[in-house]
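Batch job 17 of 40 flagged for manual review because the log was empty.
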Amino acid sequence: MLTARALRDHLLAARLAGTVATSRETSLRSYRLFAARDPRVLIGIDPEGAWRERDVIELMADRCGVSADPRHVSGQDVIDPDRTLAALDAFADRLAAAARRGAPVLFGTGHPHRLLGFYAALADAMSAAGCTVLTPAQGRCIDITTRFGLRSYNVDYVRGVALVREHDASRPGRATGAHTHSPLPVRTVLAAAAEAGGPLPELVVGDHGWVCGAGQLGFEAMGPADTDDPALFVGEAEGAVSVVVPLDDGVRSGYYRPLTRYVLNRACLSQ
């Protein structure tokens, strides 16, 4: 069994926490855009509070461990590994509760190149525990505005995890997909589930727009987020998102395996 101490050491060694690759400049830009209500950074959350830039910085300092000093404007950002561990515990506890009641679960990612394996292992464990892992809207086309203009994507599932692929490169079952922050995929998937008469998920696990989009619609939603993803943390602070795990969401996919083991052990879902 992986201990919390061993996982903390791994978080720092793999730069999942501690000094991370995300720059302070990138994070501050996201905080400014969030305060300006830029939809590219809101990613599905409709904040209730005013959330000035200073408010966002203070929240991120509290939830992630980044500097609370707005005059700190350069260098690499920092995530407190103890905050990551505490959030992973809460994440595992929510997963365990869903498993105990046999809840339908939806998994989705905008980071398929990095986080697909993490979610797929959780999906396998939840399925083995008797939960239905939902896969609605397979093949559904979605138009998403990107920095390159409007692009068409198709919804696909790999090992029970939803992702999107570019429309002209959509071969079902491939282990790669497109990086996106958009909440449109989860809205499309949830609408398809409702149109089909259910079931609807009692828990949504994912990142970016998958969490924010689902949480804003009233679904229990949780997942990881980096220091430049303030929307998830604001959603958590306002009660729209259940749990956010602060960590670098862009490291090598293999570096997330110890987190998977830790979460499954704590949730009593190890296979």
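Reviewer: the log was empty due to a logging misconfiguration, but the result itself is present. Residues 81-100 form the longest helix (20 residues). Unflagging and moving on to job 18.
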